[in-house]
Amino acid sequence: MSIFMVLVIVMAIATAGYFIGRQRAVSKEGGNVKPHSLPHYHGWWVFLASALPAVLFIAVWAAATGVYLERSAIAELPTRTADTVIASQSLELGMVSGIARGLDRLSDAERANLPQTFAELQPLLASKGVALATEGQDYMIPIAVEWNRNTAWASSVGGIVAIVLALAGAVFGLSGVNVRARARNNVERIILGALIAASGIAILTTIGIILSMLFQTITFFQSVSPSTFFFGTVWDPRFAAAGSGGSQGQFGLVPLLAGTLYIAFVAMLFAVPVGLFAAIYMAEYASRSVRSVVKPLLEVLAGIPTIVYGFFALVTVGPFLRDLSAALSGGYAFIQAQSVLTAGIVMGVMLIPFVSSLSDDIITAVPGSLRDGSLGLGSTKSETIRRVVLPAALPGIVGALLLTASRAIGETMIVVLAAGVAANLNINPFEAMTTITVKIVNQLTGDLEFNSPQTLVAFALGLTLFFITLAMNIFALYIVRKYREQYE
Amino acid sequence: MNLMTERNLEKAVNDKMSAQGNAIKMQGKDVTVHYGDKQALFGVSLDVPEKMVTALIGPSGCGKSTFLRSLNRMNDTIEGCKVGGLLTLDDEDIYNPKIDVVELRARVGMVFQKPNPFPKSIFENVAYGPRIHGLAKNRQQLDEIVEKSLRRASLFEEVKDRLHEAGTGLSGGQQQRLCIARAIAVSPEVILMDEPCSALDPIATAKVEELIDELRENYTIVIVTHSMQQAARVSQRTAMFHLGNLVEVGDTEMMFTSPTEKRTQDYITGRFG
To answer: What pLDDT does A159 receive?
Structure first.
């Protein structure tokens, strides 16, 4: 009995429960007593009482079965020795489960006289469309057979229990249908539970991401010391020399961090004034009809994929700046096509809608009574904005800018195409610099062993980046929250 | 008892004054206001005499606040608002395109329904107007203006030790008096008040009313109020609005004792509104 079939049966029971429950609630109405809940709430309560425990059981059972199957298979594998052919236990286990999957496809007749050696089995399974690694061993076959038997047993027991649970839940729900029964409150409680579970998943995912990066990072720090990583000024991971004796490569974070912050700074330098002025225009000056056209147009910018911005930087802005500098100096192009300036300007364009949209909301949130107060004293519109509205909105705007800056720091595609890959440490914005995100892309797309420091450094970089943006976001939220308290 | 007689005496003096007739400070002739397609005022003609308190009363949505806001062109800030007819300040058309709106608003100050101090210190709130209009040549003059305005708004004694703390930290009544001080600081000729006590408790209301009575000596005041008692207590002239029309205008005493219009009588005695 497959999980899918069980789910269908459980849902059918629950749906039937819904209709019966609703019917029963209707039939119990009509006395002197006012019913507590509407009939459909009784229906939903029966549905949930029936489906929820069964579905949860299926999920837990499936997970537990997986663990149990692996445990029992490992127990049956021969003890590992120095001359075990297969590199790791997990690889061995993978092969066993592969064979088990293949055996599942065989007909009963074929299964009855199963070949005893892997050499014979492999072509048979291959003909069924299951390709197996060539290192398979003969001893794996009985284990795989056992595996399949256990799987079948577990799924039928689990299926039966789930269906029984569904029926029991339906009976329990139906027995509770009563004129004064509080089905409405029960459903409410379950909705609350579901909402909490949804936000819980988001948080757990974040924790999971951090943990997965953390473990790889720890492995990286076993071969490269944290102090040389965080304070090293040379980035030279030595792709070519990887694995070949002695040369370790240098993993200095400083040039990458400097490039990241420098490019983000140039981007903010460009985006903040433009975005802020656009926001002020839209919040304070634009009539409603202009605003309804301009604001969506500006937000189109936010919808452009960043890779397209990267293209724009690479083929248009970069060469333009280079030619411009050549024309200005009379021959020598002092601005390189790939430079901090190019990446910064294009990233700045990308950030304009974020700055303007967030600031617009914040400026609009400043109470109109303050504007009236200032205008009523005979100040002009721009005086009002400069001396009353912006100071009042300042904490919120700072928060918005921090959120934008953390986006700039985490931005990848624009810098991959426009900033260059040279890990220079300089202050000339016309030269190429590189960022943490660019190096993560480089290290992970390289053709390297996964457990070499050259690859693992990407996780250390990623984690560093994560903590930088996390700190900025938390700081921004703190400021925004503080600002909110002022007016509510 | 003594207080009552004093009040009555004052009232009698006021009546005499209004009987003599003060100069007309502001004048509305056939004023109409549209908000988009909706007409809010239908040809209102009303004189505002100098150095008196004129109260505008009437049920909600009758157009009294709209009329008030057209007196210093605060209606301009509302999108789709159109004002027609003639409005004058010292016989000068304030809707003349040549008029500087900013300057007009400095001459005709406004205090709003809800106290709206800026999120700045008490000092900075009062100094705001003088600063933008360049009324003080140096810090000392600015200090003087701030102190004088706060004294006139009967707030100085309460806040003199914390002038540099946030204005938003004051109580509601104090905030409203701070807003009045802020309006006074730019030395306006007319002060418009849009239900200045509606967000205040009775004690704070009493203080603000007392203050309005004192300010009458130097300023022309127009006040919108929902409270009949307030109109009776603080004003010398009362104008009754209903459905965007001016029903009747006259000396407060007369309006509350023997109104000519039935609608006024009904409203004052609480039969509608």
So the answer is: 92
The alpha-helical segments, DSSP class H, found in B134-171 are: 139-152, 156-159
Q: Is B165 contained in some domain?
A: yes
C-alpha distance from residue B272 to each of A90, B59, B255, B267 (Å): 86, 8, 16, 5
What is the token pair recorded at A131?
Answer: 């390709």
Taking the Cβ of residue B106 and every Cβ of chain A, the question of whether any pair is shorter than 8 Å is answered with yes
Is residue B253 situated within a structural domain? yes
Please state which of the ranges A100-114, B33-47, B147-161, B167-181 shows the lowest mean pLDDT.
A100-114
Does residue B134 fall inside a structural domain? yes
Domain with B214 in it: 24-268
Contact B107 A287 (CB under 8 A): no
For A159-172, the pLDDT digits (tens) are 999 999 999 999 99
Structure confidence by residue, pLDDT tens digits, B173-226 = 899 999 999 999 999 999 999 999 888 888 888 988 998 998 999 899 999 998
Give residues with Cβ within 8 angstroms of B199, minimum separation 6.
B113, B114, B115, B172, B176
CA dist., res. B111 & res. B26, Å (int):
17
What ipTM score was computed for the predicted complex, to two decimals?
0.83
Chain A touched by B134 (CB under 8 Å): no
User: CB under 8 Å to A473, separation ≥6 — which residues?
Assistant: A402, A403, A406
**Mutation choice for A interface testing from B94, B102, B146, B191 by most A CBs within 10 A:** B102
Provide the pLDDT for residue B16.
42
Nearest to A372 among B79, B116, B133 (CB): B116
Question: Buried b vs exposed e over A204-234: b needs ≥16 C-beta within 10 Å?
Answer: eeeeeeeeebeebbeebeeebeeeebeebee
A141's CB contacts (< 8 A; 6+ apart) are A99, A114, A115, A116, A118, A121
Instruction: State the DSSP H helix or E strand holding residue B96, giving kind and residue range, or none if neither.
Output: none
Closest chain A CA to residue B192 = A376
Q: What is the CATH number of the domain that holds B161?
A: 3.40.50.300
Q: Do B110 and A376 touch (CB under 8 A)?
A: yes
Mean pLDDT of A240-265: 75
Write the Ramachandran bin of B43: left for phi over 0, alpha for psi from -120 to 50, otherwise beta: left
Fold of A235-487: MetI-like fold (1.10.3720)
Interchain pair A377, B120: CB under 8 A: no
Give chain A's contact residues with B (Cβ, < 8 Å): 287-288, 367, 369-380, 383, 387-388, 391-392, 486
pLDDT tier for residue A345 given thresholds of 50, 70 and 90: very high
Mean pLDDT for the stretch of residues A361-379: 90
Lookup: tokens for A402: 């921090």
Restricting to B residues 186-225, those with a Cβ less than 8 Å away from any Cβ of A are 186
Question: Does the predicted model carry a pTM greater than 0.80?
Answer: no
- Whether residue B183 and residue A371 make contact (CB cut-off 8 A), yes or no, is no
State how far the Cα of B257 lies from the Cα of B254, in Å rounded to an integer. Answer: 5
Of A370, A375, A380, Cβ closest to residue B118: A370
Look-up of token digits 């100094």: B127
Determine, for residues B179 and A373 on separate chains, whether the beta-carbon distance falls below 8 Å: yes
The four Cα atoms A89, A90, A96, A99 give a dihedral, to 10 degrees, of -140
Searching chain A, which residue's CA lies closest to the CA of residue B187?
A377
Domain-wise residue ranges, chain A: 3-181, 235-487
- Contact (CB, 8 A) for B31 and B83: yes
Instruction: Write the residue in A288, A372, A387 that is nearest to B74 by C-beta.
Output: A372
| Burial class of residue A165 (count of CB atoms within 10 Å of its CB; 0-12, 13-18, 19+) | buried
Q: What's the half-sphere exposure (Cβ side, CA atoms, 13 Å) at A43?
A: 12
Domain count, chain B: 1
Amino acid of residue A414? I
Answer whether residue B14 is part of any domain. no
DSSP-derived letter for residue A313 is I
